[in-house]
Amino acid sequence: MAQAKRPAQTVFRGAEVLNVFTGEWLKGDVAVSDGVIVGVGRYEGEEEIDCRGKALVPGFIDAHLHVESSMLTPEALAAEVLPSGTTALIADPHEIANVCGLPGLRYMLDAARALPLSLFVMLPSCVPATKWEQGGAVLDAASLSTLRDDPQVLGLGEVMDYPAVCAGDPGLLAKLEAFSGRMIDGHAPMLSGGGLQAYRLAGIETDHECSDGLETLEKLRAGFAVLVREGSAAHNLETILTAVQAAGIGTGRLAFCTDDKHIEDIRREGHIRHNIRRAIALGIPAADAYRMASWNAARIYGLRGYGAIGPAYRADLVLLNDKQEAAVHAVYTSGIRRWTEGEPIPSPAGIPISAELRGTVHVRPSGQPRNIRSLALPVPPDGVMPVIELIPRQINTRRRDLPVPQRDGFFAAGGDFLKAAVLERHHATGRIGLGVVKGLGLRGTAASTVAHDSHNLIVLGDRDEDMLLAVQELERCGGGYTLVRDGRVLATLPLPVAGLMTDRPADEVNSLLRRMSALSRELGVPEWHDPFQTMSFLSLPVIPELRLTDRGVFDVGEQRYL
Amino acid sequence: MAQAKRPAQTVFRGAEVLNVFTGEWLKGDVAVSDGVIVGVGRYEGEEEIDCRGKALVPGFIDAHLHVESSMLTPEALAAEVLPSGTTALIADPHEIANVCGLPGLRYMLDAARALPLSLFVMLPSCVPATKWEQGGAVLDAASLSTLRDDPQVLGLGEVMDYPAVCAGDPGLLAKLEAFSGRMIDGHAPMLSGGGLQAYRLAGIETDHECSDGLETLEKLRAGFAVLVREGSAAHNLETILTAVQAAGIGTGRLAFCTDDKHIEDIRREGHIRHNIRRAIALGIPAADAYRMASWNAARIYGLRGYGAIGPAYRADLVLLNDKQEAAVHAVYTSGIRRWTEGEPIPSPAGIPISAELRGTVHVRPSGQPRNIRSLALPVPPDGVMPVIELIPRQINTRRRDLPVPQRDGFFAAGGDFLKAAVLERHHATGRIGLGVVKGLGLRGTAASTVAHDSHNLIVLGDRDEDMLLAVQELERCGGGYTLVRDGRVLATLPLPVAGLMTDRPADEVNSLLRRMSALSRELGVPEWHDPFQTMSFLSLPVIPELRLTDRGVFDVGEQRYL
After folding, report:
1. In chain A, at which end, N or C, are there fewer CB atoms within 10 A of the end residue's CB?
2. Would you say A19 and A25 are in contact if contact means Cβ atoms under 8 Å apart?
């Protein structure tokens, strides 16, 4: 069929085809059989697709994301991203790993094999994320090695604990050693100089945390491939591409990623397609923008047969109405049409979710419900406490040592002060950390089991009774988001899969999220805060200045519990 | 040491360093420990090398060559190429494989491990080269697979029999299948259209046979990495780079190779260094030229830790006096200095050569010396024979059906007609092919055991007695080149290793070759023919129009023995 001696199964006829090898747009027919491109040139096919006036590009690759951030199962997320041209995902399932350990990873790998797109896995390197945290599981080099040779596994996921790398921490070095010769992803915001050289020397090959132009150039020069992130929270594309353009060094070592992108954003602006369009708008030649979305990522991750339109490559193809706008007409993976413009997003059939991944909310130390006394927070004699002050539009917090409202020697929420509690939810230890948060504006209670990276149960509220009710509500539904006020549950989004993901259709989730967002506003939360997003970072003891974990208030700068 | 907390072993201080990742030349110190670059930046070292005013680039990689073409052992060739900056060779040992089979390959792999540079091996895919040939060995998919996982092996060597690929030959497809997912080199001069697409679809990823601009562009567009060849016989660099520049498609998918380059040429103009200098002279930016010589080749062949100056890369470094001229000052591999300008070429200690590789000339069918009658060539009644006519400066020949000089019904050399004989030399079958050659001008006899690809013993002469003497001379010395006239051996270059390579120092070989070249001129051979080069291709039944093998005269166009 490559030699046109007999018709190919499917021929994409007459498109302007992106040749990623040369960066040219060339008219031609693309012949596909058994899911593989057999030739580009002049072909006839049993089925012929008229592509005249359209452009054909390789399917888009998200070089780094966390599926769990979408709150959808892999199959539901796949359905959401396919219509915007994404045909391969390189995922680090470290959220589910922090809750469920190896069974969580096996669930992701099993799901990956049943998808209409390609899902590759980078095994989470930092579970738990830091020595200050304790989640549902600990993954050491030996346990990670049991999955190393799975065909979906490309290597080791983002090595977030860069101080441990630079300090030569034996446990982390053992993981790096176990994945020597495989791909190892980095995560080193603002790491520079000798530390950055050491981090690269340790075998780490990518970084997706560039938020500064000089940082970008230094990382590229040190040999890192830079993943240009444009997600729901982080927007690094303009900074990175502007720096690279100004330095005149080409885009060959750049690929695109989203890291964390919510469904509403994917539906509004598209997935990797959005990165492409933004890049083109910044003056990057269209061919280079599409190469970043395909060929570059495939080469960085050593994905043979991915990321190009040429013989021996998988027929993962995106047909565009307009290449400058990345306007998608139809999307194919392995030569099979998955979506055409005008069609609704398909509802996928999921793979079964085992009991191990359900019922992960264990907050009762002796089988008894929590009682109200466990939430009592004594105030020191001087009345002053370290308060976690939120900053609008940032995930950083500020430490403020302030006099707080109290009753009978115990903190009493009021003014803009809320009580915060983090309940260990994996091993039913009953451990609980309490603190004071300022700046959310909430009049009511919000609780969530999505709290990086240990994903304990976090609850913020102005009445202890409501906070207890919120905990009970999340126990009942196996985890999720809930809003409570005056003894009444206002709305709940159940996330029964590990307390992180839903098994419901994305539409239902989306409308519920919108309702909860509106409710938050009614409860006084200003538009610059999403209470659940804010809470999700409030436990992560690597972001300055103060955090709250199940062990209490942690000062990140001083690296100690207060 | 990467963090400059203690001094590195060696620091290259103050050079203008090529950053292959960005294409920039940046001032900096390069810190090396245990043979590996640990950092680029500001460093102090136990040993410091003052590099101010010089440029530092990664060691050069020859992406495709045959060590045997140098007639030197791997260690002697390594000594010759190191002073011009070559620090890694990707070799296809198909000459020795045709003579010695797996033991020949094992010799090359063992030699590779003991060299001061890196020698990687692509396992020969076409032994014998075609179904018309029978050499010392047959390497099928099963026997090649026994060496597939050797650490020096990168994949499968040049798949020369492209018609068999396009025809779906089962034996060849089995080899391609056995190396699926590994690197597979191509060799497909002027292959185009659907055939080229099929050849790429078969898993073949490179080509080093581009001799035409449009051919180059078509191969790049089909997804081949193109190896830009500049050897002793083939000079493709200008054609390829001119085409690529005119098309404006960048040099990212190009690497350099020599394929076959003789010692005298290496000494005169350098090895890969010559490709670099020629590229720069054609207007390729110096950074891109050096990238073709290092980073590009390393990426094409998946050589982790090769081809860049950055942390985690091998300290294979070339210090240049002048980067435009590729003027080498000193060469380092694994951080160890191997050569500095002004020093003589080192004389390496070789690895032992086993008896299996010596004494490979077996031309006596029953243990008895060949007699003169075996050279008798009867002439048909009409006196006309198919004559192999040589063409000045080409390896193609022309078929001419001409009346030939004869005595008593047998061909008798005279005028410009010589007798040619090819004696099977591997299995002592006694098989002999006889023919008539026109156009060499030789008055005397020349014989050689270097005759692609089967490397039988080939002899051309004007007197049967001299031809017999030449055969006996090569029997005596285990193969090589010899010149004979009037019952006297004029000169012999012994090639006792497989009849292809010498174990003598390169200087001695070089002066002997010069002497034999001068002798050829005295014997009437015009300057446009080297009798040994000409003879070396006269047996290869893939080059038009007529060839002579141990089975007789073969018409390449008609694909049959006459």
Report:
1. C
2. yes
Residues of chain A in contact with residue B252, where contact means CB-CB under 8 angstroms, are 252
User: Helix A74-81 to helix A102-112 angle, to the nearest 10 degrees?
Assistant: 40
Nearest to B2 among A194, A250, A310 (CB): A194
**For B384-408, what is each residue's pLDDT tens digit?**
999 999 999 888 899 999 999 999 9
- String of b and e for B75-104 (b: at least 16 CB within 10 Å)? bbbbbbbbbbbbbbbbbbbbbbbbbbbbbb
DSSP secondary structure, B145-178, as one string:
HTTTT-TTEEEEEEE--HHHHHHT-HHHHHHHHH
* A195 in reach of chain B (CB within 8 A): yes
Is there a contact between B201 and A41 if contact means CB atoms under 8 Å apart?
no
Closest CA to A81 of A130, A57, A116: A116
The reply to whether A250 touches chain B by the CB within 8 Å rule is: yes
Residues of A in contact with B19 (CB under 8 A): 221
Cβ-based contacts of B38 with chain A (< 8 Å): 197-198, 201
Asked if A3 lies within 8 A of B166 by C-beta distance, the reply is yes
Inter-chain CB proximity B198 and A311 less than 8 Å = yes
Q: How many residues does chain A have?
A: 562
Q: How many CB pairs below 8 Å do chains A and B form together?
A: 128
Choose, out of A20, A21, A192, the residue to mutate when testing the contact with B (most B CBs < 10 Å).
Answer: A21
Q: How many angstroms separate the CA atoms of A496 and A47, rounded?
A: 44
Mean pLDDT by 10 residues, chain A (562 residues): 97 98 98 98 98 98 97 95 98 97 96 96 93 89 97 97 93 97 96 97 97 97 98 93 97 97 93 98 98 98 98 98 97 98 85 89 86 94 97 91 97 96 95 97 97 96 97 97 98 97 90 95 94 93 91 93 94
C-alpha triplet A225, A230, A235: angle, nearest 5°: 105
Interface test with A, best of B197, B292, B314 (most A CBs within 10 A): B197
Please, is A412 exposed, middle or buried when counting C-beta atoms within 10 Å of its C-beta (0-12, 13-18, 19+)?
middle
**Whether A41 contacts A78, CB under 8 Å:** no
B164 touches A at CB < 8 Å: no
Distance of alpha carbon A7 from alpha carbon B304, whole angstroms: 40
Which tokens belong to B416?
A: 């410009």
- A419: helix, strand or coil: strand
Task: Report the residue of B5, B16, B20, B22 to disrupt the A interface, i.e. the one with the largest count of A CBs within 10 Å.
Answer: B22
**CA-CA distance, B452 to B430, in Å (whole number)?**
19
CA pair distance A35, A48, nearest whole angstrom: 15
Q: For B19, which residue in chain A has the nearest alpha carbon?
A: A221
Whether B4 has its CB under 8 Å from any CB of chain A: the answer is yes
Count, residues in chain B: 562
CA distances from A191 to A197, A218, B20 (A): 9, 9, 21
Are the C-beta atoms of A57 and A309 separated by less than 8 Å?
A: yes
ipTM over 0.85: yes
Q: Please judge whether B201 and A38 are an interchain contact, meaning their C-beta atoms are less than 8 angstroms apart.
A: yes
